[in-house]
Write a structure and sequence with these properties.
The structure is a single chain. Strand 2 and strand 3 form a beta hairpin. The protein has three domains: 3-105, Serine Threonine Protein Phosphatase 5, Tetratricopeptide repeat, CATH 1.25.40.10; 122-190, no CATH class; 196-286, Alpha-Beta Plaits. Strands 1-2-3-4-6 form a five-stranded mixed barrel. It has a four-stranded antiparallel sheet with strand order 8-10-7-11, with helices on one face. The protein contains nine helices and eleven strands. With 288 residues, the protein is α+β, with helices and mostly antiparallel strands.
Length: 288
């Protein structure tokens, strides 16, 4: 390929990129890279092509081209080529490459081999399911994976599932004075075996409902008072939301509760809770 032809194709690739024609842009970059893989600006071409495949959710191609982009990027300087490779390698379960990508970006990971299961702190993820958008809290296991710590209201989503999220924050939540980023979900990485249940409880005080929620979390199950769910417009949902008050049951009396537990275990815990006096429950049923 003559350099004049390469220049023409690069121009078309950039035009396709600006028009968000991701597949066409990536394929044009690949045509040039097949002949000029190591030109001075080729690191940018590899990066853009890999990123286009990320936008397309074509993870094998994002992984393949991302390796080339990262190989030409400076290590330890938070170069986004390493981040995108870390995401793609994680989704492909190429743990050796994922570990090296996070280290290359500048994020230390726990020593060892295989799947990364560290303690990377809390974050929030905006789930995307059949057009629904719900923000849930996660405990991050690595820079891009986290375990869902709420009982989602979205149909088909579960407490305890592991999701992969993007790296660019699209909102913010605060809890107990700590600011926590909201990221967009990329995909469901590992489903949860815990079914979602619904129950109606009646208790004198909000503290009684909190005690019920705590009893489920103590068993590694989930519980969520319906009063803690808040519907926000898209603009507000992508802004900063203070979670300190809205995350707690607001009152006693009759409450709708979402649970994540085997139904038999949920009934046992509800019975133990009701034995505290002045507390009752009814209508325990699965909802997913």
């Amino acid at each position: 390929m003559e350099k004049s032809e390469a220049k023409r194709l690069l121009g078309q690739a950039r035009e396709a990129w600006d028009a968000e024609e991701w597949l066409r842009s990536a394929q044009l970059y690949e045509q040039v890279l097949a002949h000029y893989p190591d030109e001075k600006p080729s690191a940018d071409w590899w990066y853009d092509a890999a990123l286009a495949y990320k936008f397309l959710r074509d993870w094998p191609k994002a992984h393949e081209l991302g390796r080339e982009a990262a190989a030409r990027a400076p290590r330890g300087e938070q170069d986004p080529a390493f981040w995108n490779l870390g995401v793609a390698a994680t989704i492909q379960r190429d743990w050796a490459t994922a570990r090296d990508a996070w280290e290359g970006f500048g994020i230390p990971v726990p020593e060892g081999e295989g799947e990364i299961n560290g303690a990377f702190g809390p974050a929030c993820v905006r789930l995307h399911t059949d057009g629904e958008r719900e923000v849930v809290w996660i405990q991050r296991l690595c820079p891009t994976r986290g375990r869902v710590m709420n009982v989602p209201a979205s149909k088909g989503r579960r407490f305890g599932e592991i999701v992969v999220h993007d790296g660019e924050p699209t909102g913010e939540r605060t809890f107990e004075g700590q600011r926590v980023a909201v990221f967009d979900e990329l995909l469901l990485f590992e489903p949860s075996p815990l079914p979602t249940l619904h129950v109606t409880v009646n208790a004198p005080e909000a503290s009684d409902v909190e005690a019920l929620v705590s009893s489920f979390f103590d068993q590694d199950f989930g519980a969520e008072a319906a009063s803690s769910f808040h519907v926000l417009c898209a603009c507000c949902g992508e802004g900063t939301v203070d979670w300190d008050e809205s995350s707690r049951p607001a009152h006693g009396g009759s409450q709708e509760i979402w649970l994540a537990a085997p139904q038999e275990e949920a009934g046992r815990l509800l019975d133990a809770w009701a034995a505290g006096g002045g507390r009752t429950w009814s209508d325990l049923r699965p909802v997913d």
